[in-house]
Amino acid sequence: RQIEVVATDDRGVAGCSFSGSVALDVPRGATVVVKTVLARVTVADVAIARVETVSGEVSLQGIARSAEASSANGDLSLRNSAGRVRLQSISASIEAAEVAPAEAADQFLAKTTSGDITLARVGHARVEATTTSGHIELTGAPARGGVYLLKAHSGGVKVTMPADASFRVDARVAHGEIVTDFPVRQSQSPQSESLLHGQHSTVRVNGVAGDNPQATLTLSSFSGVLQLRKAAAR
Questions:
Q1: What does DSSP assign to residue 56?
Q2: With b meaning 16 or more CB within 10 Å and e meaning fewer, what string describes 21-53?
Q3: Residue 228 has pLDDT above 90, yes or no
Q4: What is the model's pTM?
Q5: Is 210 within 8 Å of 190 (Cβ atoms)?
Q6: In this structure, are residues 90 and 102 in contact, taking their beta carbons and an 8 Å threshold?
Q7: What DSSP state is assigned to residue 6?
Q8: pLDDT for 120-141, tens place per residue?
Q9: In whole angstroms, what is the distance from residue 37 CA to residue 217 CA?
Q10: Each residue of 68-92: pLDDT tens digit?
Q11: What is the mean pLDDT of residues 148-172?
């Protein structure tokens, strides 16, 4: 069953002049699709959410199977959800926390042209985050077999993980530096290997941290600082 809600003006004409609010209660297994020009959108506790807005904040929470949101000018947030994730914005920030896959093949994608991307405890095996002008921050234990692609053109990338995390890393920066709390065994050639630890002006770190790497991190920035940080002990 499909329910369609169309906002109209005083003449009964659908368009962009509607001013007001719309609230709907739907079953938890519902698919909710929202398209708007200028509005703040909140969707909670449904199976699938798809939201498109030109200008306005989008907040998604408790999504069970798939979350998609796009906004030209409005911050996007996703919390306590599961499933496939795709968050895209042109001029706004993206935040996601406590998000996990519903199925093994579910992926996480966050992309913005101008804005920061902040991710905390994202459990997907494949995570991609890209910003042209802004910073990327990822916090939490890496998923077993996880692949993380984090790219900031003008801005830094910071990854904070438990102190015992073990992973492969390929970090590159054109103008900036690389800082790591994790000792990285860096392979310079098949015949030589070095241990990298601390702050460096090097443009690339490619190696392994720990004895049993469980995930692969690819970090890049044209101008910024790439950081691999150990989480504070609780």
A1: S
A2: eeeeeeeeebebebebeebebebebbbbbbbbb
A3: yes
A4: 0.87
A5: no
A6: no
A7: -
A8: 999 999 999 999 999 999 999 9
A9: 37
A10: 999 999 999 999 999 999 999 999 9
A11: 96
* Per-residue pLDDT tens digits for 49-75: 999 999 889 999 999 999 999 999 999
Token pair 């896959």 is found at: 101
Quick one: pLDDT at residue 189?
Answer: 44
Type of residue numbered 1: R
Residue of 106, 83, 110, 84 whose CA lies nearest to 96: 110
Residue 65 sits at φ, ψ, to 5 deg, of -130, -35
Name the percent of the chain in helix, strand, coil, to the closest 5: 0, 65, 35
The dihedral sign for the CA sequence 84, 80, 2, 10: negative
For 82, the enclosing helix (H) or strand (E) is strand 76-82
* Paired strand residues for 195: 185
Identify the burial level of 6 via C-beta atoms within 10 angstroms of its C-beta, where 0-12 means exposed, 13-18 middle and 19 or more buried. exposed
First to last CA, the chain: 49
Per-residue buried b or exposed e for 116-134, using 16+ beta carbons within 10 Å of the residue's own CB: bbbbeebbbbbbbbbbbeb
Return the SS3 of 176.
strand
For 111-120, the pLDDT digits (tens) are: 999 999 999 9
Return the residue matching tokens 């966050």.
110
What does the pLDDT read at residue 20? 59
